[in-house]
Amino acid sequence: MVGRTAYGVAIHAGSEAGRLDWRRDYASIHYEPFDPPSPVLAGMRAYLDAMDLNYGCFDLVATPRGFLVLQC
User: Fold this and answer.
1) How far apart are CA 48 and CA 62, in angstroms?
2) Nearest-CA neighbor of 29 among 12, 17, 9, 44?
3) Residue-wise pLDDT tens digits, 22-53
4) What is the pTM of this model?
5) How large is the greatest C-alpha to C-alpha distance in the chain, in angstroms?
6) Collapsing DSSP states into helix, strand and coil, what is residue 56?
7) Alpha carbons 48 and 33: distance in angstroms, whole number
8) What's the CA gap between 56 and 47, in Å, rounded?
């Protein structure tokens, strides 16, 4: 997030090693733009506002059922 704008990128891993940690198999990785769902975007904006920040990075993981989970 830069200001109120999200710049999302989905990282897709094509191997088990890449799914475990995308850095383990760069050759199997491909990227695509990603727009966070409105509730997730609202949460990220609320966090930045609460912390009085103009910039923040959020790592989200999509579960097999399609839920987005904040990766810490």
Assistant:
1) 22
2) 12
3) 889 999 999 999 999 999 999 999 999 999 99
4) 0.78
5) 39
6) coil
7) 22
8) 9
pLDDT of 58 higher than 80: yes
- Specify the amino acid at residue 37: P
Q: Phi first, then psi: what are they for 18, rounded to 5°?
A: -65, -35
User: Rounded to 10 degrees, what is the CA torsion of 28, 34, 39, 45?
Assistant: 110
10 near 34, Cβ under 8 Å?
A: yes
CA distance 15 to 26: 10
Q: Beta-carbon neighbour count of residue 52 at 10 Å? A: 6
Report pLDDT for 69.
87
pLDDT exceeds 80 at position 20:
yes
Amino acid at 17: A
